[in-house]
## 1
Amino acid sequence: MEDKEKKNYRPNVAAIVLSSSYPAKCEILIASRIDIKDAWQFPQGGIDEGEKSKEALYRELKEEIGTDEIEIIAEYPGWVSYEFPPAVAQKMAPYDGQIQKYYLVKLKKGAKIDIATQIPEFGEYKFVERKKLNDYITFFKRTVYKKVLKYFKEEGYI
């Protein structure tokens, strides 16, 4: 078995985006990748060298969902990691997986999502209830999502 210490993880930021109806209604944005069939996920992306995770959060949201008009509600207290399945690992070389900083954010009232960005990553998006996320989320991200969502639930945010 390979030593996890020798794995090469890409620094990454991820956003659990709540609709502007929060807290009256708790719906979470998920989007379907255009490059992996039936792969729904939260918006996320790499943290550039020298960039802070919050800077990457705003940049990635603008690049992926066409808006950075958000309010940060909470930040997951640590970093979480996952490994890519073989088909994804080939595309993401030299990385074996990602180490992520998660933020729980709310869209500001009037914010418009537009996934037809300059370099589109998503083909469609929807807002779903937390308990329905596993119906959509790609298999290799479920463990991380479950851990992070459990934390935000236990802290009383969702």
## 2
Amino acid sequence: MDARLHDLRSTKNPKARIKLMNGHFATSNSHLNTYIDMSTVKSRHNNARETAKELSHPYLNTTSVDTIVCLDETSVIGTFMAEQLSDSSSMSLSAGNNISVITPEYNQMGQIMFRDNNQRMVQNQQVLILAASLTTGKTVSRAIESILYYGGAVCGICSIFSAVTKVAGMSVETIFTTKDIPNYQAYVSYDCPMCKAGQKIEAIVNSFGYSKL
């Protein structure tokens, strides 16, 4: 673990915490000046459960959810969200629902797809999209297109961190925003000021983590 990583805890729930590291990082869509490590909230069950509570809260009394599509390795959080939303002892609109928690695949064209056995969990279902981090919203836009293609309806978008407030006209519910990380910047690769200044890329980052160069 890089010693430069430091904790950022949610003011609403300190167990919903991420780690930050400043530098020059590259994703498939952009260059970043801040790496956000989410391994704690995505992998440790106590932290994942508390994170799920915060992400579920906006949907409890407003949205009926049949399926949660988990992007960016968020299936542990998604499972706890399904438990929260379907709790029959609560006033949730999804109380009693047998909520499906699924992870899509990517084909060779980079399109998001669902195998035949999972398509029934999308078709004619109210689908909530869960992501770890939204920088530009491009991946979620592809997820929306895929869900609509397979006959589902997108009922919400949520993310642990989001640099955008809306995707395809839909509000993004999130725990951390750029207000929590005020120096966070994302750039298209051809117009990255760090590249122009000769600052080398330190690592390639994606939903699995980071790999130093």
## 3
Amino acid sequence: MKLSRKRILSFTAIFFLIVLFFTVVYLKSVADYKRSVKETTFRNLDIINVPDGVYVGEYDVGFVYAKVEVTVQNGVITNIDILEHKNGRGSRAEVVVDRIIEEQKIDVDAVSGATNSSTVIKKAVENALTGEK
């Protein structure tokens, strides 16, 4: 079965257009992800006003996702369990929960090399404590 030169060029052009389409979609997804992380803000939440309990929260910016369980006792965060964490190609940032517990605030310093994951985990903790999605 011999393919004509015209048919080979048609297949090549279609293949190129498909690759170009998926590249554009991927680059837009990356841009949206970066914008979402950059636009993430934190409230000045006073932990002492959070009733005792166990709270679940999550935050998703596309390439990075976190779901956490936060325990509060007597106005103090006593434990944070990371139930799920998708960190894409970046470094893991699980130690950021230790900083939150130690400092008793959400907006702590990010883990070096894992800034985006740190931001997502911190926002998941905030969402747990505020009941936001």
## 4
Amino acid sequence: MNALVQSSNRTEGGRLIPRRAVPGLTVPTLDGGFWDLNQQNPTRFTMIVFYRGYHCPVCHTYIRELDRLHGEFNTRGIGVIALSSDTEERARITQEKWGIEHVTIGHSLDIPKAREWGLYISASRGKSSSGIEEPEIFSEPGIFVVRSDRTLYWASTSTMPFARPHFSELIQAFDFVEKLNYPARGEL
């Protein structure tokens, strides 16, 4: 067996590796508490959706879609959180103006933790196309699906706000995974 396969590190070249432990993650939420990955006990998976922040019009549409489909994930035993590096104040505006009712919103993700999860980081370019000032520094989008043993099952990250996985397709994929007991891939 080669050294790459034997490696116990959870990352290779800064990327998280399927079937290996993910970093810890604890963030404040808008309900006044904290969301801690180690405290999550879904039947099947925890899906962590990192979004760019209130300034992002693509995130607006994306997180609203996640909120609309929240029950579909829940009935499949998949816990969901959406979080960003936005401040609590901006996260509250996000929840209110975007009409997020079901998905837990985490905030104040620090940039070193975002990097630890393999997210890309961007600097402000002023106002976004929606006319909202970008934060000085923020993380780009990513989705991570984590098994109950805290190992990575699936991940998708991007350097841009565009072309993200569709949540309706993810629901279909989770049904496929369940039916065939499909293993995590990309572990080598």
